[in-house]
Amino acid sequence: MPRSRRSTNRVTMDDVAARARVSASSVSLFLRNPDAVSPRIAPRIKQAIEVLGYVPNLLAGSLAAARTRAIGVVVPSLGNAFFSATVAAMQKEFDRHGYQLLLGATEYEPGREADLVRTFLSWSPTALVVTGCRHDDETRTLLRSARAPVAEMWELGEQPFDLQVGFSHYKAGEAVARHMLEIGAKRVAFIGARMKSDVRAHQRCEGFSRSMLKAGIDVHIENVPGDASPKTGAHALADILRRMPDVDSIACSNDVIALGVLFEAQRRGLAVPQQLRVAGFGDLPFSEECVPPLTTVQPRATQIGLSIARELMERVEQPADEQEPRIVDSGFELVIRASTQRIEASQEP
Fold first, then answer.
1. What pLDDT, on a 0 to 100 scale, did the predictor assign at position 10?
2. With respect to CATH, is domain 169-298+335-347 assigned 3.40.50.300?
3. What is the pTM assigned to this prediction?
4. 141 within 8 A of 117, measured Cβ to Cβ
5. Rounded to the nearest 10 degrees, what angle do helices 230-243 and 255-267 cross at?
6. pLDDT digits (tens, 9 = 90+) for 254-303
7. What backbone torsions phi and psi does residue 261 show, to the nearest 5 degrees?
8. N or C: which terminus of the chain carries fewer CB neighbours within 10 A?
């Protein structure tokens, strides 16, 4: 039996307007910003869209403005919970204004960022969001020539293209070091994963180790080549103990690695924090519930996403000649928990 031919008659905005008994301009406004439409007619428009199966042709609607209603976002990894929280917050805010995300991950591969930025620019996005402030020359040239606002997130630099929202990772490392010095750390290590490409983890390591060095403590740095994982942390602790059997404090570039350190310490009968103090970064959901609860840095990932989205929406609505580069320091918080609890002499094993 020959296949029936699917109809090519696309449902239009006029069809939706006719069914909802409103003007096409009201439907257009509803699609851009549902909250801006009268509560009396918004439900009618929504019902008409659902009944007719209307799908907006965002590309066609953007041709006159030479812009799609899309925002390109480049992150280092789709599996990283930090960036997932930031992207989710951005998506929720952009949805309110009728924009969609084009999402790509570099997987920390050099050169991948330029490929993604070039691909996104070919779609004439309303804006671009990239992670960090350190880009290769090719990416920097592409971002500088972009005819759309550019936001850099999760890091602060000196010369933003348009917008930067983030915090100093170096200072985050310093904050962990100060805390460990206060609780009496003497034999100290830092564990990070592929810190040559993960520049923000490297900055935290630098802030931590230099602060320790000022206090006369040399930090053993364990830079693992693979992905950050509990296995990474467990293997790194095993390696450190072979070199520093008397290590008493370990800072990790993220909570996932720190979790592996806690697991390995338990397997080896090392009491935390009595014999080994452990700190992470990220304040991931398990950090408060693991045993013992993990001291960590809260990077305010959701706040970064919301700030990026709101600032970009303001820039999209502003004339280009009124826009000035802007830096927003989202800050961070050191969350002290039992994994680095100060142990009094009478409590030592």
1. 61
2. no
3. 0.79
4. no
5. 60
6. 999 999 999 999 999 999 999 999 999 999 999 999 999 999 999 999 99
7. -65, -45
8. N
Query: DSSP 3-state helix, strand, coil percentages of the chain (rounded to 5)?
Result: 45, 15, 40
Give the type of residue at 46. Answer: K
How is residue 344 written in tokens?
Answer: 């009094």
- Beta-carbon contacts of 57 under 8 Å, excluding residues fewer than 6 positions away, are 10
Decide if 70-166+301-317 and 169-298+335-347 have a common fold. yes
The tokens of 228 are what?
Answer: 């950050």
CATH superfamily of 70-166+301-317: Response regulator (3.40.50.2300)
Torsion over CA: 25, 29, 35, 41 (sign): positive
The identity of residue 122, as a single letter, is S
Tokens of 127: 């804006």
From the list 132, 85, 79, 127, the residue with the least C-alpha distance to 102 is 127
Cβ contacts of 183 within 8 Å, gap of 6 or more: 249, 277, 340, 341, 342, 343
**Nearest C-alpha neighbor of 82 from the set 328, 299, 297:** 299
Q: Which two tokens stand for residue 172?
A: 């985050």
Confidence of residue 34 (pLDDT cuts 50, 70, 90): confident
Q: What is the per-residue pLDDT for 5? A: 35
Residue owning tokens 């699917």: 6
| Two structure tokens written together for 338 | 């039992």
Mean pLDDT value across the chain: 88
Residue 221 CA to residue 257 CA, distance in Å, equals 14
Q: Contact 192/206 with Cβ under 8 angstroms?
A: no
Q: Can you tell me the distance from the alpha carbon of 177 to that of 334, in angstroms, rounded to the nearest whole number?
A: 11
Per residue in 64-81, pLDDT (tens digit) is 455 678 999 999 988 878
Q: Where are the domains of the chain?
A: 70-166+301-317, 169-298+335-347
